[in-house]
Design goal:
mainly alpha; two-stranded antiparallel ribbon
Length: 159
């Protein structure tokens, strides 16, 4: 048995499925248990070895790097993903209104699929004991099914 941790940000869970499928296709495994979780707010600050391995000058500091920002920045173009999205929107003449409408429609489609039980087999319910009692987690916490394009239009842009 082997274990592997992958950091593909939002794609980590899917990458684990890809890795398992490849192992199976190669005959290296017959069964695989895979999954993904992320906590982007828990990304560490790091000091790369070439900057700190042999110490730093007194008062010089450790030149810490935000690994989330580094991972979300394309090494080739030196642009963050958000700027890439803005560039693509400009290239394909996508307006803020169109994007907001798409996002609201996506949330509504999730709500309809959730109500129809389409995701029921994807999340195993777990009980979490807290000071306030036991809570059952059985639904993705991210979707906002009541979201409207008008609400999204009020949000400030990030890039």
């Amino acid at each position: 048995t082997t274990a592997l941790t992958v950091n593909r940000l939002c794609g980590s869970g899917f990458e684990s499925v890809v890795q398992a499928a490849k192992d199976m296709q190669l005959g290296e495994s017959h069964v695989a248990l895979v999954g993904g979780a992320e906590s982007m707010s828990q990304c560490p600050l790091v000091s790369y070895g070439q900057h700190s391995r042999f110490g730093v000058k007194l008062g010089g500091g450790l030149n810490l790097v935000d690994t989330l920002w580094a991972a979300l920045t394309d090494n080739h173009t030196k642009l963050p993903m958000g700027i890439t999205a803005e560039n693509l929107a400009r290239k394909y003449n996508m307006t803020r209104e169109e994007v907001d409408e798409f996002a609201a429609r996506s949330q509504a489609m999730w709500a309809a699929a959730h109500e129809a039980g389409k995701f029921a087999a994807e999340i195993t319910p777990i009980e979490i004991k807290t000071r306030k009692g036991t809570t059952v987690v059985d639904t993705d916490e991210h979707p906002r099914p009541g979201t409207t394009a008008e609400q999204l239009a009020k949000l400030p842009t990030v890039f």
